[in-house]
């Protein structure tokens, strides 16, 4: 069981990526500094030149690490600033889109109002067309009636009335001869006067009858 745990830890450590420069700096910081030119003196190692050189090396490594950290932080800040700028640009674009949508909605409302007005006008025009059509139909009926009346009047104009009065007789006397029918077809007499009405024929020949 212990072997499997150790293997898992090694596998996890192998999977974690490392920067080569950072690994080298960390290894250099952990290794003891060795100065070949200056031999280590016996006594207190902290007061010797080897201890000083090791402290300087550690300080340099710490400063380099801090510089790298500062560079990474600066890069992160730069990236964050770029993201904020992009976000502001996106917000402006969204605001512009919202304004365009508001304009489109207003135009749509105006278009719907115009269409409704046009529909009302079309309805009024259709009603007017119906009334005009009914009036035209009425006028056509009246024209037909006038034509029929005109035809009847023309037919009546073809009849003529001839009046005869006999001398020595009053116009109020009624004789049986006056009530007799005429031999001519279409002849009509009055009961008091010898009146004969006959329609005109071709050649304008009129029929007249005198009763004596």
Could you characterize what this model shows?
It is a single chain. This protein is mainly alpha-helical and 212 residues long. It is 63% helix and 5% strand. GO terms for molecular function: rRNA primary transcript binding.
Brief sketch in words of this structure:
This protein has 212 residues and is mainly alpha-helical. 63% of the residues lie in helices and 5% in strands.
The radius of gyration over CA amounts to 66 Å
Computed structural class: mainly alpha
For the residues shown, what is the average pLDDT? 70
> Which percent bin holds the helix content?
55-70%
Main sheet: strands, sense, barrel: 2 strands, antiparallel
Question: pLDDT below 50 for ≥5 consecutive residues: which ranges?
Answer: 6-18, 32-43, 176-181, 198-212
Shape: rod-shaped
The largest sheet has its strands arranged as: 1-2
Query: What are the secondary-structure elements, in order, as H or E?
Result: HHHEE
Straight-line distance between termini: 165 Å
> How many strands appear in the DSSP assignment?
2
The portion of residues forming beta strands comes to under 5%
The helix count comes to 3
Pfam families: PTRF_SDPR (PF15237)
Organism: Takifugu flavidus
Main location: cytoplasm
Protein name: Caveolae-associated protein 1
């Amino acid at each position: 069981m212990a072997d499997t745990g150790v293997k898992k830890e090694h596998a996890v450590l192998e999977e974690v990526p490392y920067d080569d420069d950072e690994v080298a700096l960390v290894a250099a910081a952990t290794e003891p500094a060795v100065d070949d030119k200056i031999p280590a003196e016996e006594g207190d190692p902290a007061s010797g030149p080897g201890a000083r050189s090791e402290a300087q090396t550690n300080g340099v490594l710490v400063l380099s690490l801090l510089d790298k950290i500062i560079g990474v932080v600066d890069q992160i800040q730069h990236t964050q600033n770029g993201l904020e700028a992009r976000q502001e640009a996106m917000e402006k674009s969204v605001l512009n889109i919202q304004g365009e949508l508001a304009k489109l909605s207003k135009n749509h409302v105006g278009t719907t109002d115009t269409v409704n007005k046009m529909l009302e006008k079309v309805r009024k025009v259709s009603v007017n067309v119906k009334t005009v059509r009914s009036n035209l139909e009425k006028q056509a009926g009246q024209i037909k009636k006038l034509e029929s009346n005109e035809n009847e009047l023309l037919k009546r104009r073809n009849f003529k009335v001839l009046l005869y009065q006999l001398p020595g007789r009053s116009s109020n006397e009624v004789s049986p001869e006056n009530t007799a029918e005429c031999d001519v077809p279409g002849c009509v007499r009055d009961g008091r006067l010898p009146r004969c009405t006959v329609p005109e024929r071709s050649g304008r020949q009129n029929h007249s009858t005198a009763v004596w």
